TrEMBL record:
Classification of source organism: Eukaryota, Viridiplantae, Streptophyta, Embryophyta, Tracheophyta
Highest rank taxon of the organism: Eukaryota
Designated name of the protein: Complex 1 LYR protein domain-containing protein
Domain Complex 1 LYR protein, first and last residues per copy: 68-130
GO biological process: mitochondrial respiratory chain complex III assembly
GO cellular component: mitochondrion
Pfam families referenced in this protein's UniProt entry, alphabetically: Complex1_LYR
The species this protein was found in: Arundo donax (Giant reed)
Amino acid sequence: MPVAGHSRASALLRAVAAPRRPPSRSIHEGPDTIEELLDRHLVKKPAGVLDDDAAEAEARRRLTSSRREALGLYRDILRATRLFAWPDDRGVPWREVLRANARREFEEARGERDPEVVARLLIGGRDAVQQALDRLAEASRRAVEAEEAKRRGGA
């Protein structure tokens, strides 16, 4: 008998001293919790697929971002038009003509919801403002050079 007791004690010592491994479960034992059961057996949505609420939230976020960009572009246009003070052929300051045209174009595009079209409009608007400012800077530079040439030639 002492041998049997000794083998039981050594088996206990080995079990306590051995590194702990998670208990293995057979297929038939089942999960510990409901969450584990659901995780194991429910089909998970791929990361790129959104439900209706998530898609609506994403569209709203994009719309808000585009709205912010459009307002920024409109403000930049208004700031840029301050530089166009001379009148056109009818005697109306170019500043007013440019502002009216910008307002009209923004109003026409107000209902646009397609993100690609909105992005294209914003990029086109930014390019147009930059080109107008570049042309204005070039014309101003030429006017200054012409004025200096007159002074040198007339003095």
